[in-house]
Here is the input.
Amino acid sequence: MELSKRQTASYGIGAVGKDMVYALSSGYVMYYFQDVLGISASFVGLILMIARVFDAANDPFMGIIVAKTHSKYGRFRPWILSGTILNAFVLYALFSVPQGLQGTGLNAYFAVMYILWGVTYTMMDIPFWSIIPAVTKQPKDREKISVVGRTCAGIGNALITVFAMKSVQMLGGGTTHAAERTGFSFVALIAAAVFALFEIICVMNLHEKPTPVSENDEHRKISDMFKTLFANDQAMVVVITIILINCALYLTSNLLIYFFKYDIGGNSWASIQMIFNMCGGAAQILGMMLVYPLMRKKMNNETIFKICLLMEIAGYVLILLACSACISSNIAVICLCGIPVFLGNGILTVLTTVYLSASVDYGEIQSGRREESVIFSMQTFVVKLASGLAVFMAGIGIDLIGLNSDSELQSVSTITGLRLMMTVIPIIGLAAAYFVFKKKFRLTDQKIDEMNLQLKERNGDDNAV
Here is the structure.
């Protein structure tokens, strides 16, 4: 059967809620514990890296667990629901540190809660994206639901990125550290509630065809998963590209709030940040919903992918030039410079999902096995490794450049270091991603269509699941 509008819309709703909580955690946990609560930036960065590496190491286990799950509700939906409920409670606890908790106790609370947040998020995130090939086998339907999912995920991310700090200050009653501490607790509570509601809607309306239990599934090992991945050269190319792109993305996202607060500065820095993020979020969503479909009519996906990587690099160069020319405080200028970064990133998130789905088919043709949960668990595995590395670099960098959160004024060397960290390092990562993709990627549009026909002939199935 074809993918229904109700299923597609429900999947999009789930993506909105999922990325709202992810954006809150990935974008503001460094600021909350370092700037608001006063923990050392290096310590926060170290814990975040350790926690994400630990969480990433659990992703293969989660992929195996999902692969072995067989219920009347399918492989994926039970985990989406249970992971969501647990993660919503942990998210609120993460941003609601008890008053009076300081020193070693505060450090321990932060480490434990952040690790728990990552583990529970993994429970629902891996099956959420892994379900795409299980819902439909049609390449066009997969592309459609990937676009909707990534677009709606961008909307969820944008809602937090754009309105979080203004909401924190409004709900907390001011801009002091004490007020922001209260505000973050309220924002986390609202995000957690919306998250739970949206995932329930998704699970109730999205359907998958139950897969019969096989002996191989029951005896699957982690080593088998890595063998499967490493044997799938195209999945490896996509995974490496995702690592490089996300290192650039997460380094920038963790430093942006410091850029606006201490470089742009002034009493209205949060409003300027909100406008910038609003423009960026709009560009990201526009890229997924409008620009990508228009480009798709004229170009193949490989060409679009390369253009978007170059577009992001150009955006970072423009931001650095604007800072060097001392015109970055002009909100119109900085927004225009940032649009290529957001626009390109929005389209790239769609294409990486499309290519991972295609790599599942590619792997099935190679080995005779479909490895949705394995391939997509590796996506979250490497994204977390990349984000862990990026946030550790950000924490170390913040201390190295001498940023002092107790003062609104920073030295010239501190501001220069901040600007270079958030532009030059991402440029290097994106250039490396372009090189890897250009040299090694082979899943062209024609190849994907050929694989789909080959699998239909092999399985005797002309319809989507």
